[in-house]
Amino acid sequence: MNLSYLLLIPLIPLAVFLLLGIFNTQIKPAVSGYIGVLGLATSTALSYYAAFQYFFVSGKVDGVYQTFVEKVVWMNFTETSSLKYLHIDMGILIDPISVMMLIVVSTISLMVHIYSRGYMKGDDGYTKFFAYLSLFSFSMLGLVLATNLFQIYMFWELVGVSSFLLIGFYYTKPSAVAAAKKAFIVTRFADLGFLIGILIIGYYAGTFDFQTLNAVNPEGEALLLNWASTTFMGMSVFTWALILIFMGGAGKSAMFPLHIWLPDAMEGPTPVSALIHAATMVVAGVYLVARLFPMYYFVEEGFVLNIVAYVGAFSSLFAAVIAITQTDIKRVLAFSTMSQIGYMMLALGVSSYKGEEGVGYMASMFHLFTHAMFKALLFLGAGSVIHAVHSNYLKDMGGLRKYMPITNITFLIAALAIAGVPPFAGFWSKDEILVAAFEKNEFLYFIGLFVAGLTAFYMFRLYFGIFWGKETEYTHTPHEAPISMTFPLLFLAFMSIIAGFIPFSEFITADKVGFEGHLNYTMAALAVGTGLFGIILAWIFYKKENDLAEKFAHSFGMFYKWTYNKFYFDEIYIFVTKKIVFNLVAAPIAYFDKKYVDGTMEGIGNKTVWISRKIKGVQSGKLQDYAFSFVGGVVIIALVFIYLWTN
Amino acid sequence: MISGISIYEIFTLTSILFFIGIYGFITRKNLISILISIELLLNASAVNFVIINKYMYPDALQGVYFSIFIIAVAAAETALAVAIIINLYRQISSVEAKDTEIMKY
After folding, report:
1. Which of residues 63-82 of B touch A (CB under 8 A)?
2. Which residue from B minimizes the CA distance to A616?
3. Pair A320, A339: CB distance under 8 Å
4. Residue A373: burial class (beta carbons within 10 Å; 0-12, 13-18, 19+)
5. Are B42 and B70 spatial neighbours (Cβ–Cβ below 8 Å)?
6. Measured between alpha carbons, how far is A130 from A39 in angstroms, rounded to an integer?
7. Is A494 exposed, middle or buried (0-12, 13-18, 19+ CB in 10 A)?
8. For residue B36, is it within any domain?
9. Reduced to 3 states, what is the DSSP secondary structure of residue A116?
10. Is residue B1 part of a domain?
C-alpha cells in the first residue's frame, strides 16, 4: 500500500495555517475562508480515498487488517547496536482505528470550516480564526497518524495549544482568557502524567513504537510481557506507566476528576466547541487507550482497564446528572460530551481482546464515530440558535421552531440519535456498549442504562426548551441561518441517520479480524425503553410552559443546588490550589527565591559597585601620582631582583 | 679612556643626574619644569651610553651614535611636549600640573 500521499493529509492544513498566519493582514476575509475550506476539502478527499483503499482494496490480508507503517528515524537516544536501541521516529501509521479517525477528524473539520464561514462573518479575527482551525486540523490529523508514543505526545501538545488559542479567541473577554488558561493548565497537568508514563515505557521497554508495544503473537499472547517483570509497589512498572498514560488521556478527554476545564472551554466560538470540545480533541484520550489497547489488556490481566471502566462509568453518570440542571445550552452539551466520552471509556474498559469478546472495543470506536457526528451537529445547531438569539441561556429561548425550521429538524435528529432511538446512529453504538458492559460487569451495565435515560431526558429538556416551550418575545425576530451554516447541519444530520448502519464490527476490532455484528433485542428494547421514558418525562415537563419542572426540582432541595453548582468542584479546586498549594508550597519557595537566591546575586553586584566607589580615588588624574607609583614600582622590582641575585 | 677618572665615578655622576631628574619630575608643579626634568633623565642615559662605549668597547662607536640619536629624539619630543603645553595653556590658561586633573576617571 502506497502511503506517501497520506503525508499530505496533515501537511495541507499546516500549509494553510502558515499561509493564513503569515499573511494574516494581507488576505481578505472572504478569500481566507475559501482557502481554509479548500485545504480541508483536499485533506478530506484524501482521507476518504485512503479509507476506501484500506478497507476495501489492499488493507485486508488473510482476513486480518494489516498495520502499515512508514517512518524515518528522527532522534537516537542510545547506540544503534545496543540491546535496547531507543529512538524516536517520525512517520505515519495506518490501521483500522487511525483510518476511522482520519475520516472523523477531516469530515467534522471540513463541516466546521464551512459552518464558520457563516458563523464568524464580520468578526475581526476572521482570517486568524481560520488559521487556528487549520493548525488544529493539522495537529489532530498528525496525532491520529502517529507511529509512536513520542510522536503522539508532540501532536497531543499541539492540539492542546490550538485548543488554548481557540478557547481564548475572544481574548478581550476576561472569562474567555480565564477559561483558556484553565483548559491549558489542567490538561498540561494531566500530560505530565502522560510524559512520565512515556518515559517509564521508554526506559523499561526500550521502545516507543506502537507496533512493538502492541505486538501479539499468533497464540494471542503479548510479546512485551517478557519485559514486564520489574515491579514497583507491588505492581508491574508497565501498569504504572499505563495508569499515568491514562491520566493524560483522562485530562484531554475531560474524565472525572480532571473534567473541570471542559464546561469553561465553551467560552470559545461555537464552531470550535463543535470541532475540538465535542468531536475530535476530547476523544483523543479514548483514541490513546484504544491505540495501546493490547498493552492495556495484557499487562497484569487488564488491571488498568478496570480503572478505565470505572472512571468512565462514574464520569458518565456524574456529567449526566449535572447536565440536567444547567441552563447554558452549550454547557449542557459540554457535560453531555463528557458523559458520552465516559461511555466510550466504559466500553473500552469492559472489552476483551479476541474476536467477538472484543465487542467493547468495537463499540467504543463505533460510539466515537457516531458521537462525533451527532454531537458536532448538536453544537452547530446550538451555534445556529445562539447566532439567531444572541444568548446562551435557555430562559431567552423558546418556540424557535417557527423561525428556524432546518435547525429544528436537524437538532431533533441529533437529539434522537444521542437518546438512542432507532434507527438513528446513537442507538446502534450505545446498544453495543451496553451489551459489552452487561457481559463483563452488570453493575457498570446498570450505570450505563441509567445514564442512557438521563441523556434522553436532558437532551429533550434542551430540545423542548429551545424549540417549543414558552413563546418568548424577541426584540428582533430570529431567522434561519445562511446556507453556509445550514449545509453542514443537513450533512451531519444525514450522517447521524445513516452512520449506525455501517457494519462497524467487520472493520474495526481489537484483534483486527472482524466479526458479524448482531443486535441483542432484549438489551436494545431495554435501552430504547429507558431512552423513551426520559423523552416522555422531558415532554411532560418542558413541552408546554408549566411549573412542573420547578416543583420537581424543589423536591430535591439541596441536591438540586449541589448539582446546579456542579458539586462545587471548581470551588474545591480553587481551594486546593489557592489556599493549600499556593500558601503552603508556592509562597515559601517564592520567598526563598526572592530573599536568598536573588539576594545573593544582587549582593555580589552591589558589593562590587561599593568597592569600586571606594577605590576609584586612586586614579586621581595627577600626573605626578602616576609617575610616583611607576617609579616606586620600578624601585621595588629592582630591589627584589637585586636581593635575589646577590643571594 | 679618561685618565685619572674611573668608570664608577662617572656612573655615580650619571646616577645622581638621573635621580635628580626623577625627583624633579615627581615634585615640580610646573609642566615646563617637569619637561626639563625629563631632559635630565635623557641626558643621564646619553652620558651612560657614551661612557660604556668608551670604557668597555673602545673600538666600537655604536654608543656614541645612540647618544646622538637620543639627542635628536629628545629635541623632537621636547618640541612636541611644548606644543601640547601651549595648547593646554590656551584651553585652561595655566601650565600647572594640578590644573590638568580634569581628565581623571
Report:
1. none
2. B105
3. yes
4. buried
5. yes
6. 11
7. middle
8. yes
9. helix
10. no
Q: Is A623 on the interface with B (CB under 8 A)?
A: yes
Range of the domain at B47: 7-103
Which CATH number covers residue B77?
A: 1.10.287.3510
* CB-CB neighbours of A387 under 10 Å: 19
Tally the domains of chain B: 1
Consecutive 10-residue averages of pLDDT for chain A (647 residues): 81 90 83 88 90 82 80 79 77 87 90 86 83 90 89 91 88 87 88 90 82 72 61 77 89 85 85 85 89 82 85 89 84 89 88 78 88 89 84 78 83 87 83 84 86 87 81 71 82 86 79 74 82 82 70 71 73 78 84 90 93 84 83 93 88
Contacts 24+ apart (CB under 8 A), A459-462: A459/A336, A459/A415, A459/A418, A459/A419, A459/A538, A460/A415, A460/A419, A460/A534, A460/A535, A460/A538, A460/A539, A460/A542, A461/A324, A461/A538, A461/A541, A461/A542, A461/A549, A462/A329, A462/A332, A462/A333, A462/A394, A462/A415
Cβ under 8 Å to A: B residues 16-45: 22, 25-27, 34
* pLDDT (0 to 100) of residue A605: 93
Collapsing DSSP states into helix, strand and coil, what is residue A423? coil
Would you say the ipTM is above 0.90?
Answer: no
How far off is chain B from A600, nearest CA to CA, in Å? 29
CB proximity under 8 Å: A 322-381 to B: none
pLDDT at B86: 92
- In the predicted model, what is the mean pLDDT of residues B61-80? 92
Report if residue B93 sits inside a domain.
yes
- At A223 the pLDDT is 60
Mutating which of B19, B20, B23, B25 best tests the A interface, going by the most A Cβ atoms within 10 A? Answer: B25
Residue A537 to residue A461: CA distance in whole angstroms: 9
